[in-house]
Amino acid sequence: MFKLFNSFSLSKQDFVPFDKSLVKIFICGPTVYDYTHLGHARIFLTYDLLSRYLNDQSLQTDVLVNLTDINQNVFNKAKENSTTYKDIAKFYASAFVVDLQSLGIQSINRLVYVSDYVSSIETQVQELIQKKVAYTAHGNVYLDVSRVKNYGKISQQTRTELNLHRLDIGPGKKNQEDIMLWNCTDEFDFSWESQLGKGIPWWHMQDTAVAVENFGKNYDIHGGARELLYPHHEAHLAQYELLTDSEEPVRAWVHVGLVLSDGEKMSKSLGNVVWVKDLIKKYSSDLIRLYVFSKHYRDDMDFSEKDLERQKPLLDLIHLAKSRVSDTTHEDISNLVRSFMESLDDDLDSPTALANLEKICTEVKNGKGLSQIDYSRMCNILGLHI
Ligand SMILES: [Zn+2]
């Protein structure tokens, strides 16, 4: 039975999708105003591994990623370049697709701009107001979290702890931790005319509209970087539950650790950002994948080119094994292939899977048989293009 760590329960749980044969996955996508760095890429590589593994287990996947184009950073970039937010979004969305393709990420089948959902957001915010869980204050619309059952449940915070965060600061808010849904008071270079007032739909609500419109009442996995847990995912879940009248509409909340650079978060101001477009010029996607999967997805990883290069002997062994594949798999190797699969079955434990793959390829080097079918199966799951 496939087990996944659920941030909601803080434990590994048997993964049972709502639909027996189809797994619906929503991954929080990028804000499209810059190129893709390794931290972003790790997220999509992780869900690509997950999708490939589920596909191997005869489960189809439906993977939705939203492109955030309603955002101040996008607007600023548009202004700098004397163009529209849409042009900036299109440019960086195309670059994102190229970067993902260069890493062999094929699992995403729905890639959508949040700006295409503004009328849905407007309708949904009005619905929340009618349900008396949202209110207007000085032109803005907020979600009244005191009306939400067990608010704080994903980020494991009590109301007192939540109250310590100074969020969405605005006049007339009922509770400090209330979540903005529609912003009419701040000045934006781009805004939308609406019955809620001229303004912009706020971040969390953008994702909720995309999820409701694409997946309806429920879906199986919500993913993204761990740093999105609060307030983003907490707010999204509250809104989603209220709009769909469902309890626990998402089976599992799966979060990926950060990629650090010299022990710090990647940022342009520190000059430590590792861009995918640069990395792929120097190293193959196979090597980058082995490197990213050499760490468990939930752990943070500190980028080091030396560590990346340390994967070269394993990649060479995998290449050598390819030239030695035979018709049948030796019993000893069959057991190792089983261990490879079992490690992925245990919350996608890719480091252990790679250790098993290394043993397999070493046995093949020493003369034991590995069938083409078993070899290709493992390479396909890892997304290696050998
Ligand atoms: Zn999101």
Structure description:
The structure is a single chain. The chain folds into 2 domains: 19-259, Rossmann fold, CATH 3.40.50.620; 311-380, Up-down Bundle (Four Helix Bundle (Hemerythrin (Met), subunit A)), CATH 1.20.120. It contains 14 helices and 14 strands. The chain has helices at residues 38-56, 72-80, 85-102, 118-130, 159-162, 203-215, 229-244, 276-282, 285-293, 305-309, 312-324, 331-345, 350-365, 372-382, and strands at residues 3-6, 11-14, 22-27, 60-67, 108-113, 134-137, 140-143, 179-183, 200-201, 219-225, 250-256, 259-261, 264-265, 301-303. The two termini are 29 Å apart. Zinc ion (ZN) binds at residues 28, 207, 224, 232. Zinc ion is lined by residues 28, 207, 224, 232.
Portion in helices: 40-55%
Series of secondary-structure elements, N-terminal to C-terminal: EEEHEHHEHEEHEEHEHEEEHHEHHHHH
**What is the name of the CATH class of the largest domain?**
Alpha Beta
> Count the strands?
14
Give the uncertain stretches in residue-range form.
none
Q: Distance between termini? A: 29 Å
Strand content: 15-25%
What name goes with the CATH superfamily of the largest domain?
HUPs
Name of the CATH architecture of the largest domain: 3-Layer(aba) Sandwich
Quick one: biggest sheet? 5 strands, parallel
